[in-house]
Write the structure tokens for this entry.
Amino acid sequence: MEADVREREIQGQLLECDVVYGATDNHASRSMLTELSARGHLPLIDVGVRAGVRETGELDALYVERRLQIPDGPCLWCWGVLDAERVRLELMPAFEREALAAEGYVAGIDAAPEPTIAPLTVTAAGLATTTLLGLLGGGLEVGPLRAGFESLRVESIAYADEPDPDCICRRWRPA
Ligand SMILES: [Zn+2]
């Protein structure tokens, strides 16, 4: 089934799930999922990939990351994964965004996926699946919650697992 996570009916269906995979490629739908996860005590497995390119155009790094949002852990906003301006631009009607792009204000929002990203998405899907196996096999004893690696040098990257006390998710979480 293909549907938009911004629709209330779809959100209701997601809240009935035990865990949600976030494989979306934009900030607006990710922000919806992270809010839904926090409000609904719904574990969210989110993955992201990114290519680092030098100013001279050479490929410098290929990052893969998975984030597991659990009820008492950080949300995607806590971790700084999401960008509010990007969410605003993505939710803007296409004609307004195109007008901004024509004026040079917006770059990359409607860009096609980079070919170099394809093998990373396969890796990310594997990471998401092993996270799900961890959840099923050991409750919520999967950690660190946000982790990833740079796949050219195979260097791991870890992040803080504490929620940001000033994050908006404090208001979303049930008391
Ligand atoms: Zn948060």
